[in-house]
Amino acid sequence: MNPALTKFLTSQTPITKESTLWGILPLRIIFYLCSKQPPLQFVTSVCSVVFKADSVLVVRDAENHFHITPGGRRENKEAIEETLHREVLEETGWTLSKTFLLGFAHFHHLAPKPANYTYPHPDFLQIIYVAQADRYISEGKVPGEYELETYFRPIDEVRMLPLELSQLILLNEAVKLRQRME
């Protein structure tokens, strides 16, 4: 692992860990809470838990899984908050206001780098925010193959969805952060 990334990660406290499979690529993901932005050279994507009143934005994907962190890949030299606003708009149609840094996820590949693999390997980060939904712009949503639908649901109802444990933990931490920031 890169020494600068190792130094940053050892100064943080993880809140949960999971393993997943992205296509054929096994990954370990460790989630952290922090108020300090991670080193940008390792950040490849940005996402957010999005609130509207006492509801949370839920995304249903093509595999019929639910998650509460819309967002996506950072474009070349794009500022982090620009990525956040663009990606959430493209995936959900919602603009954001009042964004607060919640933490980040550290992704670590558990297999050798495949031939012709153009993404960071073996480590990369995703910054996680908490945001307030501002307004819906239907033409801002880009039709995609992955996100099938998005909708707001009351927080307690979202806790009952079949979410990954990490998503539930992020939801609980996002609710706490939102309360502190109001």
Describe the structure.
The chain has 182 residues and is α+β, with helices and mostly antiparallel strands. The chain has 4 helices and 9 strands, in the order αββββββαβββαα. The protein has a single domain, classed as Nucleoside Triphosphate Pyrophosphohydrolase (Alpha-Beta Complex). The protein starts with a helix and ends with a helix. The mean pLDDT is 92.
Write a short abstract of this structure:
By secondary structure, this protein is of the alpha+beta class.
Search tags:
nine-stranded mixed beta sheet, 182 residues, Nucleoside Triphosphate Pyrophosphohydrolase, alpha+beta, 4 helices, globular
Secondary-structure blueprint:
Blueprint: H1 3-10, E1 14-22, E2 25-33, E3 43-52, E4 55-61, E5 66-67, E6 71-73, H2 80-92, E7 94-109, E8 123-136, E9 147-154, H3 155-159, H4 165-181
Parallel strand pairs: 3-8
Antiparallel strand pairs: 1-2, 2-7, 3-4, 3-6, 4-5, 4-9, 7-8
Radius of gyration: 16 Å
Q: What is the average of the pLDDT values?
A: 92
Structural class: alpha+beta
The DSSP helix count reads: 4
Sheet-strand content, in percent, reads 35-45%
Report helical residue fraction.
10-25%
In sequence order, what are the helices and strands, one letter per element? HEEEEEEHEEEHH
Described by the principal axes of the CA atoms, the overall outline is: globular
Number of strands: 9
Extract low-pLDDT stretches: none
Query: Ends: how far apart?
Result: 38 Å
Domains counted in the coordinates: how many?
Answer: 1
CATH class: Alpha Beta
